[in-house]
Specification:
Radius of gyration: 16 Å
Helix content: over 70%
Structural class: mainly alpha
Shape: flat
Oligomer: single chain
Keywords: Cell membrane, Membrane, Transmembrane, Transmembrane helix
Number of domains: 1
Pfam families: ATP-synt_I
Distance between the termini: 22 Å
Number of helices: 5
Order of helices and strands: HHHHH
Membrane topology: Multi-pass membrane protein
Strand content: under 5%
Largest sheet: none
InterPro entries: ATP_synth_I, ATP_synth_I_Bacilli
Main location: membrane
Length: about 120
């Protein structure tokens, strides 16, 4: 398995762990809209992480073959974020908007934490 795929699998596990805590928070606390917003944003963030991993693999394969390199899918990741915010704005009684935004940042925070853990734990 490539290093990129290994990182993706590890980061996906971390995100699923966070999602399980969010689901427990949604089910057992009175802050349901906040946790539902975190769930929506984190699910979209996980989708963006998968998209970024897939596009990066395609980018690497194109470079190895000497082909023309296409975009890394920034527009599609932004469209996913806009969709999540639109859902939160359409149903404000169910989703807390700020929580959705924090959820959208989850994969990037997980990537940074995973990088630091892997860097300092390998020494």
């Amino acid at each position: 398995m490539s290093d990129l795929k290994t990182m993706y699998v590890r980061q996906r596990k971390y995100i699923f762990l966070l999602l399980s805590f969010y689901v427990l928070g949604w089910g057992f606390t009175s802050y349901q809209s906040i946790f539902l917003g975190l769930i929506l944003g984190t699910v979209m963030s996980l989708y963006n992480l998968w998209l970024m991993t897939r596009k990066t693999e395609q980018f690497g394969a194109a470079v190895e073959k000497g082909e023309k390199v296409r975009s890394l899918g920034t527009a599609s990741r932004m469209a996913t974020a806009v969709l999540a915010v639109m859902i939160a704005m359409k149903f404000p009684e169910h989703f807390h908007l700020i929580s959705v935004v924090f959820g959208l940042m989850t994969s990037y925070i997980v990537i940074m934490i995973d990088f630091f853990l892997q860097t300092f734990l390998r020494k």
